[in-house]
Amino acid sequence: MTVVQAKNVVKDYGLPAQAVKGRLQGQVVHALRGVSLDFEEGEFAAIAGPSGSGKSTFLHLAGCLDTLSGGTMQIRGEDTAGLSKKALAFLRRKYIGFIFQAYNLIPVLSAEENISFPLMLLGLDKKEIQERLAPVIQALGLEGMEKRRPAELSGGQQQRVAIARALIKRPALILADEPTANLDSQTGREILEVMLDLNRTNGTTFIFSTHDKMVMEYARRVVMIRDGQIEADQRRSA
User: Beta-carbon neighbour count of residue 234 at 10 Å?
Assistant: First the structure.
């Protein structure tokens, strides 16, 4: 099944107006210039490129965190164009998990509270939350850390909590924006091994944005992007 289908996707950003020869003119940044990409269920893929290439923009559009300037983006067959903010939020909650380089954990909540927060937003009862919580904590090696707050965890442990939070919804798609950027190489490798194992075991689709060569080595598909356009799309066997 196609999880993400992008056709001729365009994304422009307007910058604040600047004085040019005595007149105010606004600049437009063309972040994506007609990108077409499909990602199938169970892929472990990376979108790679230098800073400003458009890779994070693509993830934000696929994650319904931003809106298109042109083209179409479908998530599991549902077209995101024209959807209201409420409808986009529902699509995110239903199908998509996010892993950010800054972790984005809630400082006043414990590890288990951070992990279970998406389920509370979905309105699940305490019993079902606990049933889902235990296996995710075990899978990510977080036993004994459930009551710790983010400040009491290492960077690698915080990233594991962020992965667990993304996984606990059992999403069709996990989008990881530079997930190893704030980690040392050993911890980054351990985190990638965890995600690869989850991909193989559960069939969860992972799409990374990265410029980390180690992430590209782990990915079974690497899409190279530069200046908002695809340069290469390479696949290799598992």
Answer: 11
The alpha carbon torsion through 218, 216, 46, 57 (nearest 10 deg) reads 140
Phi, psi for 11 (deg, rounded to 5): -140, 120
Q: Closest Cα to residue 183, out of 99, 60, 94?
A: 99
- Judge: domain 2-235, CATH 3.90.1150.10: no
Domain boundaries, the chain: 2-235
Backbone CA torsion sign across 172, 90, 209, 9: positive
Q: Are 67 and 34 in contact (CB under 8 A)?
A: no
pLDDT tens column, 3-51: 999 999 999 987 655 545 555 456 788 899 999 999 999 999 999 999 8
* Residue 172, pLDDT score: 87
Indicate the length of the chain as a whole number: 238
Task: Say how many Å lie between the first and final Cα of the chain, rounded.
Answer: 18
Please tell me the pTM assigned to this model. Answer: 0.88
- pLDDT over 90 percentage in the chain: 59
Instruction: Quote the DSSP letter at residue 220.
Output: S
Q: Which residues contact 137 (CB under 8 A, 6 or more apart)?
A: 112, 115, 143, 146, 164
